[in-house]
Amino acid sequence: MKILIFTEGTVTMHSTGKDLSREEIVKQVVDNESSVKDYASYVPVRNAVEKIKKWASQGAKICYMTSRRTEKEVNDVKTMLKKEGFPEGELFFRKGNETYQEAAKRVSPDILIEDDCESIGGEEEMISPKLDPDLGIKVITTKEFGGIDHLPDNVSGLMKV
Fold this sequence. Notes:
By secondary structure, the protein is α/β, with parallel strands linked by helices. It has one domain: HAD superfamily/HAD-like (Rossmann fold), CATH 3.40.50.1000. The chain has 5 helices and 7 strands, in the order ββαβαβαβαββα.
């Protein structure tokens, strides 16, 4: 089973959001707080690392999707994921004029986990509303900066969410 997990807002966040409420973190993004663009210093949202490690230990192939597109920013995200202990997995990003939907199709995951993009425009910015249902990708949407702690520990349970 291949799980594609969106990074920013779903399982990672800017460092100054740590220990704040979800609403306060969203406000920081809306207000363009300076650490929001410092991708190298991002931190996990709650217990995301532990949750993803559980899925990986059950044989799930973990992949990540970032909103970042420049080589420096993508490398910053890669470095941060490793530094913070996220399980190994390829980091995907949109290439050229590619949409998120096209990138997700290229990755071809069984499950896509993304957040609701509350701070940046909601559904208009999400992958899932425009994703072709014929691809058969199970979509799980969480609240932005709400984390994934509430999702099942068992990989097979993700298909029932």
